[in-house]
Amino acid sequence: MRFMCVVVPGLEEIVEDDLINSLPNIHDIKTERGKIFFDIDKENLNALLNIKSVDNFYYFISSFKVGICKKDLVEFKKEILKLKFDKICKFVDKKLINSKLKNENLKIIVSASKKGKANYSRFDISEIATSVLVEKYNFTEGDSKNYDIAIRIDIDEGTCNIFTQITDASFKFRGTNYNFVRGGLRPTISYTLLKIAKIKKDDVFLDPFCGSGTIPIECVNFRARKIYASDIDSEVIAFARENAPSNVHIYLEDATKLSFKDKFIDVIVSNIPWGKQVMVDNISLLYNKFLKEAKRVLKDNGRMVLLTDKDELLKEALNLKFNVKVITTLSLHGLHPKVYYLTKE
Fold first, then answer.
1. 98 versus 171: which is more confidently predicted?
2. Residues 294, 228 within the same domain
3. Domain-located, residue 304
4. If you average pLDDT over residues 30-56, what whole number do you get?
5. Does residue 165 carry a pLDDT above 90?
6. Domain co-membership, 154 together with 276
7. Of the residues 144, 171, 198, the one at which a domain ends
8. Between the CA atoms of 88, 94, 96 and 97, what dihedral angle is there, to the nearest 10 degrees?
């Protein structure tokens, strides 16, 4: 069975490693920017949906060639007509299908992307596919908040690949009961940052800019010995306490004036202030004060994974004699923050 998953651009290598370690007998892996394609056996489907670094999974339905002219969409329409109901609905709950068929129509949405030269748009593609499938299978056109089936069509240099989405929008947010705040990371990104940090079971962990708590909550999956989180904003701390389980210890605290004793923390992972979402008057000064405090509380050979698009971090870290490595650059919120790995000398 052929699948595709979508990930934050820049995290493909980390997610591919997660897939390989989580899915026995995975094969035929192909990676593109923001996408990973792979084959797995049917018996591995449950393991697929337990992977925490992926935003969404899609099941491959069909592939065919399509021309670059608008007249070629006639042939595109014929190929859409060939799509089988069983494949389109393969991951839709059978009880839902039976119930809907008795009382109302299944709702379908179709999204499309297009790379390469062509004198038609992605909207032309999605509109044709939607109208064909609605007419052929008596579907009703849904929307992004109300649908039973989501079809994805990607046209790349004349090749059309069609997928059906097997995870809904809440998958990458761990359900719908999360209180997110401005500037926060979604759980899938937080999980990959923790993978980069190589959290161990005997680690004492800290996120000193925790916001609504996504990173420390994801750290629970790694079973660190102690998990601490703090933020200077009392409002976001309230959200973090609502979101987090009881084994995440959350404090209202300034990241530049931590209450921990010297050499107490093994690892820090944090989405520090950056970009346009969190405004800071003097980012260099903040980074300098935070890094000095981090160096105090980290154990010898302690490590940090930090996310920011500000070059000031590298300058301040080197001035304070941290060993610094740039792991990858992400595409996020229209910006390109880097993932830094720092170790204390």
1. 171
2. yes
3. yes
4. 92
5. yes
6. no
7. 171
8. 50
pLDDT, mean over the chain: 93
- Kindly report the CATH number assigned to the domain that includes residue 77: 3.30.2130.30
What is the number of alpha carbons within 13 Å of residue 202 lying toward its C-beta? 1
Range of the domain at 243: 187-344
CATH number at residue 297: 3.40.50.150
| pLDDT for 13 beyond 70 | yes
Residues 137 and 248 in one domain: no
Question: In terms of residues, how long is the chain?
Answer: 345
35 and 124 together in one domain: yes
Instruction: Give the pLDDT confidence score for residue 278 in this predicted structure.
Output: 65
In a domain? residue 177? no
% of the chain surpassing 70 pLDDT: 97
Rounded percentage of the chain residues whose pLDDT exceeds 90: 80
Give the per-residue SS3 of the chain: CEEEEECCCCCHHHHHHHHHHHCCCCEEEEEECCEEEEECCHHHHHHHCCCCCCCEEEEEEEEEECCCCHHHHHHHHHHHHCCCHHHHCCCCCHHHHHHHHHHCCCEEEEEEEEECCCCCCHHHHHHHHHHHHHHHHCCEECECCECCEEEEEEEECCEEEEEEECCCCCHHHCCCCCCCCCCCCCHHHHHHHHHHHCCCCCCEEEECCCCCCHHHHHHHHHCCCEEEEEECCHHHHHHHHHHCCCCEEEEECCCCCCCCCCCCEEEEEEECCCCCCCCCCCHHHHHHHHHHHHHHHEEEEEEEEEEECCCHHHHHHHHCCEEEEEEEECCECCECCEEEEEEEC
Predicted confidence band of residue 176 (pLDDT cuts 50, 70, 90)? low
Chain centre distance of CA 114: 22
Confidence tier at 49 by pLDDT (50, 70, 90): confident
Residues 217 and 146 reside in one and the same domain? no
pTM over the 0.90 mark = yes
Number of domains in the chain: 2
Q: Looking at the predicted structure, is the pLDDT value of residue 294 above 80?
A: yes
Structural domain includes residue 180 = no
